[in-house]
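JOB MANIFEST
job_type = single_chain_structure
chain_count = 1
residues = 396
[input]
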Amino acid sequence: MYKVLRSYSKKAERKHELTRSTANTTEKVNGYSVTDATVSSPIHSISPSYGIGVGTIVEDVRNGQVVPIDRNGRIEAAWPGGQAFSESSSYEAREHFERKVQRVKKTRGERDSNRKSKKSKVSEVLSSIDGASARDALLQWAQDVTRGYPGVNVRNFTSSWRDGLAFNAILHRYRPNLIQWSKIIGEGVSARDRLNNAFAAAENEFGVSRLLDAEDVDVDVPDEKSIITYVSSLYNALPHTSELSRYEDVMYEYEREAAEWLHWVERATRLMDDRQLPTNLIELRRLERDLERFKSEDLSPKAREKQRLADHYAELHQLFECTEHLHIPTELSTQSLDQSWQRLLQSLNERFSLIEEQVGVQGSTTDIISRLARGIGITNEKLDHILNRIEDAESR
């Protein structure tokens, strides 16, 4: 804004060759030359408690020159002593100045908006004027990040943290492989062991200074300020997003792949359970070869995929066991997939047995038919021989 004022002051000097007239009465306020008295302007705010009356504020522009500003922050159209800008230059300066002010306000507003959109540090919030609101905001954050952990109920910054579960739950949410939750909630683990585990993990993994001792927290009413200070330090040190969000995507991908695998297995099982078989021995032999090919070429890759899914599920189950964050349906668990796989193998073996049995039956029937055909042929030959002898006897 000062540059704009300088620019248009120079322009006015060049166009009108104004000379500066000295006001009758002047005072020096913060290094500026002021006529009569001063009042708050859009550029600098001057407190009424200083005893300064309502009048006109003037700003130092360049080399001791002054530009008067009226009550609304506009540049006045006339200089003291009757010397004035021309109407056009005054209007141009005033309009340009107002546009510049609006741009500056807009830029400042955007900067303020960007600052607000960024994640505020809890330490800054706690040092704000409204301490109660900062405390409530930190408490709300702690409640949100510990949701889904049975046994954790954060209601305050004193007794809710005594057993150490809340500290471990926060760390587990942001780094699931750092805290073995199913072990830390065991009945044989003391509160101090949990506290020491959380403090050590936070210090080693996130660089959070160990501001608390387990002995100080494991009391009936821990010191609230100490807990708030440590939790705020923990909040500042943790990453912006928790790894739980990433693992939720991993769980979704596992569910998708496991569901596709299970669909294939169930469809193959229904095909194996089909008891309709061809009656032709050649067709039976062809079907038997197809089953052998299915067993070697199709089942082997699915068996490897099943093992990969089992390893994946075991990792997720270990990380989120005893929490409410393991959202994988029961029918997609490793145990359920194993059961479906075993049913498929059983149906496949039964179909092999049925085909072999049918082949045996067809083979026996063919042998019987062959023997009957041979017997009939022999009988026919004997009958022909007998008929020939009868005919010979009659001819004599």
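[summary]
The mean pLDDT is 73.
The longest helix spans residues 334-395.
exit_status = 0
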